[in-house]
Amino acid sequence: MQERYLTVHQTRRREPTGYEDLLGDSIERAFASGIADLAALVAHLNRTGPGFPGGGAWTEEGYQAEVARLAAEC
Domain Recombinase-like: where (predicted)? Predict the structure, then answer.
């Protein structure tokens, strides 16, 4: 019997966009540098990018809405 497992991209419907790759990389760098709260993560995104979709600055509410939107697309 073959062992069942979940591959990293098994549930992905499409390849990530360039924006999604940049956002994920920036979030990973934030976590690696010890950032662990939303306010600090939003500040990190505003310093390092990528920019908030449609312009303007990242906010806690905007970040939460954007992550929810991206999650719904997956």
Answer: 1-72
Q: Tokens representing 21?
A: 């790759």
* pLDDT tens, residue by residue, 6-27: 666 666 778 889 999 999 999 9
User: The tokens of 5 are what?
Assistant: 């497992």
Contact yes or no for 46/58 (Cβ under 8 A)? yes
> CA-to-CA distance for 53 and 18, rounded, in angstroms?
13
Structure tokens at 7: 């591959």
Q: What is the pLDDT of residue 58?
A: 98
Nearest in space to 24 (alpha carbons), one of 56, 5, 12: 12
The closest of 50, 31, 51 to 41, measured between CA atoms, is 31
In the predicted model, residues of the chain with pLDDT beneath 50 are none
